[in-house]
Amino acid sequence: MSDTPTSVDQRTVGAVIVLAAGGGTRMKSSRSKLLHEVAGHSMLSYAVNAATALEPEHLVVVVGHLREQVMGHLHDIAPHCRTEVQEEQKGTGHAVQCGMANLGELHGEVVVTYGDVPMLSGDTLAQLVNAHRANSDAITVLTAQVPDPTGYGRIVRDDRGLVSRIVEHRDADDATRAITEINSGIYVFDTDVLIDGLSRIKAENDQAELYLTDVLGIASSDGRRVGAYEIDDLWQTEGVNDRVQLSRMNKEMNRRICEQWMRAGVTILDPEHTWIHSSVDLGTDVTILPGTSLEGATSVGDGATIGPDTTLVDVEVGADATIMRTQASLAVIGEGATVGPFAYVRPGTVLGAKGKIGTFVETKNTKIGEGAKVPHLAYAGDAIIDAGANIGAGTIFANYDGDNKWHTHVGRNAFVGSNSVLVAPVDIGDGGYVAAGSTVTQDVAPGTLAVARGRQKNSDGWVAKRKPGSKADRAASEAGDYHPNDEVAADQAKQAGSNQEAQQ
Ligand code: UD1
Ligand code: CA
């Protein structure tokens, strides 16, 4: 989806250390802050992806607070990461010391990033490394000019424009606080400079913490070159500390994702009311209508129309399909197929090309063949419905006997009449018919009609006898021999006659 990525030159990066030990108390959550999601994926996953893009020798995540959760999550999404534990959060400098603890000899620089800055891209990290190398810096820090720098560390530059030190907001005097260039907390260090600096930092500040930022001041006073790489895209330096910021981050990420898809040839009628996870894939000439949420591993083929008011989670949609007012997950929708409005498509549903899952239909673990239709008010579960079959309105596949689930098969071009119950396990053969209102408990051979319902019996004059003088009785006697259906039939016959004349 993205443009050609920036890559770092031949030399490898020694390590990326992702700081992720902090408390995240302002989230007020039993879940680690790093596992909260932006565009459908954990904040930590973005940090790890950006780091991975540098192809470092080592990728280390420093964990602390709620570390079992964080380590479990990393095991799932990025088993190539190693973790180091920072037992007590004694500051960013201490966190990097922990991250470096077991790395041995490194053959390149050390990059430091944060686990809670989801918008930072691998591209930006690569540009930072390239700038570091091009300028022969000992340390390069990623910085930004912000309108309100409150709370951030300020970048103090010397008269050559190099960084002489970073001063935390709480340790800064008024003149320093007036500086609007801030420290993003993302850096590239020459390894020896980092190791030396970390051995010299002291917890002599307002928070009595070991500040990583002090390593920059130490290197600068040693006469080393400390550069700043300034970026315009402030979002890439933004961390998330509470759920208000999380919401803002989600909104911005979604805005960017929608914009990227629109530029790639997708029509999104109302991007503010369309949510697309970063993992979703869309074809060209896809149309997305308002109130649509495309999640997880969803992919949509060329020319398909999704929405309005549709949520697809891990759904593969074929080209030119139409899905309207639908909730679907773990399903495959074939080319040119139609779904909805008001369908509930559950895991294991596979709808063939040009097939139909219609209005107020629920499906689960059901394969519906090419051109087959389940158009109205039905439940189809644990079934195979072959190509061209038609499932009448109100049909229920009774798949559950209270203990076990059973399968149903409906053959090719079979026809199941309205309001039938197919009691599984049962097999309707190819071209078989089921009369409307049947409860089918036995297999139906190919080409056979099954009628499984009470035969109709009419009791003449029943109302006159049992409810004399009632409204129904009066209506019946007024009707006499009049049957509205006879008139309809006569009209139809007349119509057919005149059509024939017109054709001759
Ligand atoms: C830090 C920087 C500040 C910068 C800001 C950008 C220092 C001293 N200050 O400040 O200059 O403008 O980031 O957001 O570095 N962490 C640990 N272990 C610790 C402490 C922190 O893993 O002991 C992690 C946190 O989880 C977080 C990151 O490091 O991801 C930053 O920590 P935080 O306490 O938010 O630093 P700030 O005070 O914001
Ligand atoms: Ca912070």
UniProtKB/TrEMBL annotation:
It catalyses: N-acetyl-alpha-D-glucosamine 1-phosphate + UTP + H(+) = UDP-N-acetyl-alpha-D-glucosamine + diphosphate; alpha-D-glucosamine 1-phosphate + acetyl-CoA = N-acetyl-alpha-D-glucosamine 1-phosphate + CoA + H(+). UDP-N-acetyl-alpha-D-glucosamine binds at residues 19-22, 33, 86, 91-92, 114-116, 153, 168, 183, 241, 346, 364, 379, 390. Its EC number is 2.7.7.23, 2.3.1.157. Residues 455-504 are annotated as: Disordered. Pathway: Nucleotide-sugar biosynthesis; UDP-N-acetyl-alpha-D-glucosamine biosynthesis; UDP-N-acetyl-alpha-D-glucosamine from N-acetyl-alpha-D-glucosamine 1-phosphate: step 1/1; Bacterial outer membrane biogenesis; LPS lipid A biosynthesis; Nucleotide-sugar biosynthesis; UDP-N-acetyl-alpha-D-glucosamine biosynthesis; N-acetyl-alpha-D-glucosamine 1-phosphate from alpha-D-glucosamine 6-phosphate (route II): step 2/2. This is Bifunctional protein GlmU. Binds 1 Mg(2+) ion per subunit. Catalyzes the last two sequential reactions in the de novo biosynthetic pathway for UDP-N-acetylglucosamine (UDP-GlcNAc). The C-terminal domain catalyzes the transfer of acetyl group from acetyl coenzyme A to glucosamine-1-phosphate (GlcN-1-P) to produce N-acetylglucosamine-1-phosphate (GlcNAc-1-P), which is converted into UDP-GlcNAc by the transfer of uridine 5-monophosphate (from uridine 5-triphosphate), a reaction catalyzed by the N-terminal domain. In the N-terminal section; belongs to the N-acetylglucosamine-1-phosphate uridyltransferase family. Residues 495-504 have a biased composition (Polar residues). Mg(2+) binds at D116, N241.
